[in-house]
């Protein structure tokens, strides 16, 4: 493929994608050690042009022996200019081992990190003093149009929804029903009302979505630009006047985009999701799981097969129960106080704190819906929660989870490099918080938690832990005493907690029988399904 600049020793070919596979620009480059700066600049222009247009992989002998790829630093000016080019074009350099002597001269660059995997530096061929570089190019599909439908909240009739749910006589409807029956009636009522008042749209639909930077002033300038174009075509204004209107509009758009990016960056602490959503929108491809490699070394690309592989791995790190469930009758007290009942206001408080940007669980109860109906649903939820606490019965929906695998680092074809994120029932999570408050109230009231514990304790954190630690260490050092410190980090600590030990401890701390029974049933017979590229 001809990309100009014949003075540059580079060869480019375009690998055409078939079906849903995207095109890949593949390049080979040789840079002589004595190459002049003008030729370097010509190659940089090639990289800049090609990396912005499509997926790119370029390899070759770049002859920059002074570059340290661990720190991305170099001693010479030309080498630093090359590093600047890589950084400006968001390119990734994949070779980590020396390819000639102690130097990394042969490089593999790509504008999409996950495109190049399984890179190895092997023995040389014949009399060559350069090592062989072997790698795989994982061809990804173009962004597929999602067939998944989600609620279009912009067109929702929330007033009608409140009217439909608000007229239900919940106390009469839930009376005499079990926890499971009460939950199913509540869920069915909400989903039917939701279907009548909120239309659906495709998950990745972009039509009608206005960019955050597109404010009223920009819309006004776009209108002026459009009108100027019409006037220029009709001969009412000169071409220079039209160009001036275009320049002004373009300048304000650039300024608005820059201000929006600054706003996202400065507000990342309070709103990380919006920031990363913006970053994701700028990427050429959608983050997708896989392809994965099976134990036999075969590539697995089907969503169902990959979901099964990931599920097998996530299950493998779970600790099986060590024995029978402790007898809570002998290890806990009766629930004697009716002051600990779950009240409507308590549920309303939790509903008000819901993050409406979060995803629903398998029960399809969206946090946006629950928050919009805070006055209408807090009473029936309080009744269901109280019934669940009294009887220990947990609705099946609350014990199901959709597991979304999130890529962490390393090879994307290794199931161990994905972190499971569990999407569970939102009402179930609220009930979980209510039970947590009950347990914490008991533990704090009976002074069970020691002052040395900082994790998961109200008004304490990693910072308070460090302050207490350094205070202890410095006081010992001031006294001239020797100090030995052992740092421990438990691998997959939260995934491997023994349920039996947990239940046993709750009983020994004299927690009431109803709460222990609820916790036991909450942990027992849970199920999950892994959702891949859904």
UniProtKB/TrEMBL annotation:
Domain of life assignment: Eukaryota
A Pfam family that the UniProt record links to this protein: RVT_1
CDD domains: RT_nLTR_like
Chain coiled-coil ranges: none
Domain Reverse transcriptase span(s) in chain numbering: 387-534
Entry's Gene Ontology molecular function annotations: catalytic activity
Gene Ontology terms describing biological process: cell adhesion involved in heart morphogenesis; larval heart development
Recorded GO CC terms: extracellular matrix
Protein name (record): Reverse transcriptase domain-containing protein
Organism of derivation: Pelodiscus sinensis (Chinese softshell turtle)
């Amino acid at each position: 493929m001809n990309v100009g600049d014949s003075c540059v020793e580079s060869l480019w070919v375009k690998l055409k994608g078939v079906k849903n596979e995207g095109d890949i620009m593949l390049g080979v480059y040789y840079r002589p050690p004595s190459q002049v700066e003008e030729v370097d600049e010509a190659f940089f222009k090639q990289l800049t042009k090609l990396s912005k247009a499509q997926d790119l992989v370029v390899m070759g002998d770049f002859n920059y022996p002074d570059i340290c790829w661990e720190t991305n630093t170099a001693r010479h000016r030309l080498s630093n200019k090359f590093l600047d080019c890589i950084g400006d074009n968001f390119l990734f350099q994949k070779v980590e081992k020396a390819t000639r002597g102690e130097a990394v001269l042969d490089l593999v660059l790509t504008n999409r990190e996950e495109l190049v995997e399984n890179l190895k530096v092997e023995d040389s061929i014949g009399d060559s003093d350069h090592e062989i570089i072997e790698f795989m190019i994982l061809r990804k599909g173009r962004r597929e149009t999602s067939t998944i439908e989600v609620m279009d909240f912009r067109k929702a009739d929330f007033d009608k929804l409140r009217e439909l749910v608000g007229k239900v006589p919940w106390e009469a409807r839930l009376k005499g029903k079990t926890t499971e029956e009460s939950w199913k009636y509540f869920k069915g009522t909400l989903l039917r009302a939701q279907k009548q008042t909120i239309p659906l749209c495709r998950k990745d639909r972009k039509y009608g979505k206005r960019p955050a930077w597109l404010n009223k002033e920009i819309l006004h300038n776009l209108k002026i630009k459009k009108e100027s174009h019409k006037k220029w075509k009709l001969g009412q204004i000169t071409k220079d006047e039209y160009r001036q209107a275009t320049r002004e509009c373009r300048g304000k758009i650039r300024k608005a985009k820059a201000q929006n990016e600054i706003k996202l960056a400065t507000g990342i602490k309070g709103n990380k999701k919006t920031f990363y959503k913006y970053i994701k929108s700028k990427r050429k491809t959608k983050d997708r799981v896989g392809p994965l490699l099976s134990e036999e070394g075969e590539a697995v690309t089907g969503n169902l097969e990959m979901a099964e592989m990931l599920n097998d791995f996530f299950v493998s790190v779970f600790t099986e129960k060590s024995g029978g469930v402790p007898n809570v009758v002998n290890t806990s007290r009766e629930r004697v106080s009716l002051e600990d009942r779950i009240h409507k206001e308590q549920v309303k408080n939790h509903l008000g704190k819901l993050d409406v940007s979060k995803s629903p669980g398998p029960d399809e109860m969206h946090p946006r819906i629950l928050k919009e109906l805070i006055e209408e649903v807090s009473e029936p939820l309080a009744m269901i929660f109280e019934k669940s606490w009294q009887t220990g019965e947990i609705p099946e929906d609350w014990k199901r989870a959709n597991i979304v695998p999130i890529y962490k680092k390393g090879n994307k074809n290794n199931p161990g490099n994905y972190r499971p994120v569990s999407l569970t029932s939102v009402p179930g999570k609220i009930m979980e918080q209510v039970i947590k408050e009950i347990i914490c109230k008991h533990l704090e009231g009976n002074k069970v938690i020691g002052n040395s514990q900082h994790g998961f304790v109200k008004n304490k954190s990693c910072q308070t832990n460090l302050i207490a630690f350094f205070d202890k260490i410095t006081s010992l050092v001031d006294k001239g005493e020797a100090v030995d410190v052992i740092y421990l980090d438990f691998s997959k600590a939260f995934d491997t907690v023994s349920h039996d030990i947990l239940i046993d401890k709750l009983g020994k701390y004299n927690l009431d029988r109803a709460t222990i029974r609820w916790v036991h049933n909450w942990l027992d017979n849970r199920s999950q399904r892994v959702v891949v590229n859904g």
